[in-house]
Design goal:
It comes from Citrus sinensis (Sweet orange). The chain is built from 13 helices and two strands; from the N terminus they run H-H-H-H-H-H-E-E-H-H-H-H-H-H-H. Strands 1-2 form a two-stranded antiparallel sheet. By secondary structure, the chain is an all-alpha fold.
């Protein structure tokens, strides 16, 4: 007598996890958001896929993550443009999904394929993602999540340099004075990291933009 139907399902490969995550995120289109039941189903799929991704990246408490799978996952996330979806869909995700996304984001950025941080390189080719995260400080529902993601990005000189030299940087002078204390404090933490993490980058920026920064500082 066969009991094959009791066998546990085969664990997904990194590629399958990324593909499933991409499909579930893309399901959050305008039409889906309008249809409550469809939205709920899409959210459930996203949360399930994020949990799977999180376990693959950091283990489940009993089994340590497989280093090769982690690198493959990071590579596929870039190949499939999933990083773009993770950022742009963040504002409409539920709390648990956002929490898992932020956790995965910090691990993904640290993955080095050969001598390259593949996810950082991807963001270097899509700097608009950083602008989007900065602007999200205006949305108190996701501001703290975006703040964590930004500070993870700022750990890398090339990404910190972009934010400093972009028009988005000026927004921090506004965000640190927002009426919501938690958001303003978080924005200040990000602002501080931008000006202290990479002294050479900051020195070059201040040398070129001292008058602008000074004007903003005295007006705060």
């Amino acid at each position: 007598m066969s009991f094959s139907f009791f066998k546990p399902s085969r664990p997904k490969t990194p590629l399958e996890v990324v593909k499933a995550t991409k499909v579930s995120l893309m399901a959050l289109d305008i039409k889906t958001v309008v249809e409550v039941k469809a939205l709920e189903k899409a959210m459930e799929e996203i949360e399930k896929n994020f949990v799977t991704m999180r376990c693959m990246l950091s283990g489940d408490g009993e089994v340590e993550p497989n280093a090769d799978q982690v690198l493959q996952l990071a590579t596929e996330v870039c190949k499939e443009d999933v990083l773009i979806l993770l950022v742009h869909k963040l504002p409409i995700l539920g709390w648990e999904a956002r929490k898992d996304l932020v956790h995965c984001w910090s691990i993904l950025l640290k993955q080095k394929v050969d001598s390259t941080y593949c996810c950082v390189q991807f963001i270097e080719n899509h700097f608009e993602l950083l602008d989007f995260l900065v602007v999200c400080y205006d949305n108190k529902e996701v501001a703290l999540h975006c703040g964590i993601m930004l500070r993870e990005c700022i750990k890398f000189p090339s990404l910190a340099r972009y934010i400093l030299e972009s028009a988005s940087f000026e927004l921090f002078f506004k965000f640190v004075e927002l009426p919501t204390f938690d958001v303003a404090s978080d924005a200040f933490s990000t602002f501080k990291d931008l000006l202290t993490k990479h002294l050479t980058v900051v020195s070059e920026y201040l040398t070129a933009h001292y008058d602008e920064v000074y004007t903003h500082l005295i007006s705060v």
